[in-house]
């Protein structure tokens, strides 16, 4: 039997619903991604199961989990949908930079440090390119967007675990520091031991963010658990909370240096070696970059390796941290 003799046994729209439910794990998220109602997506899954004669998902309180039959179908549908997404993107841009689009996602800190300056220059040089930016506090959420082909590239700080499907290129480094507000300003008067700081309340962005993971790794080197007393959504809310005297925090120096200069926040010196985190631009290995995305990556983002090669060989090496790097950062550096 040739390909011309075969026909699809079911509606291709049902496979589209299957793809997004399996990708996101819930009917609600799939419906949002497809801009459909939840009953419409539920009905598509039921019709697909009826026509294929098997159960594709297990319904649980936490969401939808693929059955053995569902995993078999997913192994074929997922690469096919990924190819279709790539084809749509290539046709939409028609291999022309001008008039195309660029889709980026990053965390708040990565946006402030790298995306915003580069985006300003890119938009000035290419005003007809439509730029779409998405922000999320959790690195896994951003990597899911890249994995599904919904964005062209992501910009993240270590630590993160990208996986084999992604290509990561270093674009810079930020330095973390401990900060306090006026209530705890006395801690900034002398150099402190890191374990000493856990005697005081701590404020953090959500668990699952790279900032939270990095801070946890710092304290783990001393055999301590990092359990913040208060978690807030953004670094701006962390700063406001610290300024109000609710506790201490670890944040990038680039984010707080203006507040420190104005005397609103205080940097707490510690005996910890420089706490540096690398930043990466991340792309999907199996999805070709659009002309706009390629231009943005190659000409508007810094290249840390090239910059390092231009530095003098006499620059002293930094003393390694006790116990080596955190587990998460090794993941990022191995990409």
- Predict the CATH topology of the largest domain: D-Maltodextrin-Binding Protein, domain 2
**Integer tally of domains:** 3
Give the topology string: H per helix, E per strand.
Answer: HHHEEHEHEHEEHEHEHEHEEHHH
- Low-pLDDT sequence parts: 307-335
Question: Got a strand count?
Answer: 11
CATH architecture descriptor name of the largest domain: 3-Layer(aba) Sandwich
**What's the CATH H-level superfamily name of the largest domain?**
Periplasmic binding protein-like II
Beta-strand share of residues: 15-25%
Largest sheet: 9 strands, mixed
Write the layout of secondary structure elements.
Elements: H1 12-24, H2 27-34, H3 38-52, E1 57-60, E2 63-66, H4 68-93, E3 101-106, H5 108-125, E4 130-135, H6 139-147, E5 153-157, E6 166-180, H7 194-197, E7 202-204, H8 210-220, E8 230-231, H9 235-243, E9 248-252, H10 253-261, E10 266-268, E11 275-284, H11 291-299, H12 304-310, H13 327-333
């Amino acid at each position: 039997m040739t390909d011309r003799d075969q026909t699809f046994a079911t509606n291709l729209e049902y496979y589209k619903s299957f793809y997004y439910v399996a990708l996101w794990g819930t009917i609600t998220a799939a419906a949002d991604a497809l801009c459909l109602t939840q009953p419409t997506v539920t009905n598509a899954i039921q019709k697909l199961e009826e026509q294929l004669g098997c159960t594709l998902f297990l319904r649980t309180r936490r969401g939808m989990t693929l059955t053995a039959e569902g995993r078999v179908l997913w192994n074929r549908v997922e690469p096919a949908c990924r190819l279709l997404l790539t084809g749509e993107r290539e046709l939409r841009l028609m291999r022309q930079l001008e008039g195309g689009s660029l889709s980026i996602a990053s965390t708040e800190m990565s946006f402030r440090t790298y995306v915003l300056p580069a985006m300003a220059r890119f938009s000035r040089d290419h005003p007809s390119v439509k730029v779409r930016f998405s922000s999320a506090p959790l690195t896994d959420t951003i990597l899911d967007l890249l994995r599904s082909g919904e964005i062209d590239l992501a910009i993240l700080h270590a630590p993160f675990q990208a996986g084999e499907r992604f290509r990561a290129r270093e674009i810079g480094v930020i330095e973390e520091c401990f900060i306090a507000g006026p209530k705890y300003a006395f801690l900034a008067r002398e150099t402190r031991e890191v374990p000493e700081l856990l005697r005081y309340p701590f404020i953090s962005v959500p668990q699952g963010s790279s900032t939270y993971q990095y801070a946890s790794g710092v304290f783990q080197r001393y055999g301590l658990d990092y359990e913040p007393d208060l978690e807030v959504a953004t670094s701006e809310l962390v700063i406001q909370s610290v300024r109000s005297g609710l506790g201490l925090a670890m944040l990038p120096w680039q984010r707080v240096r203006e507040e420190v200069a104005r005397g609103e926040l205080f940097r707490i010196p510690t005996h910890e070696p420089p706490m540096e985190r690398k930043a990466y631009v991340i792309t999907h290995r199996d999805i070709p970059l659009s002309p706009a995305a390629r231009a943005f990556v190659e000409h508007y983002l810094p290249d840390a390796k090239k910059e390092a090669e231009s530095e003098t060989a006499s620059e002293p090496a930094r003393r390694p941290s006790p116990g080596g790097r955190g587990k998460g950062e090794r993941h990022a550096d191995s990409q």
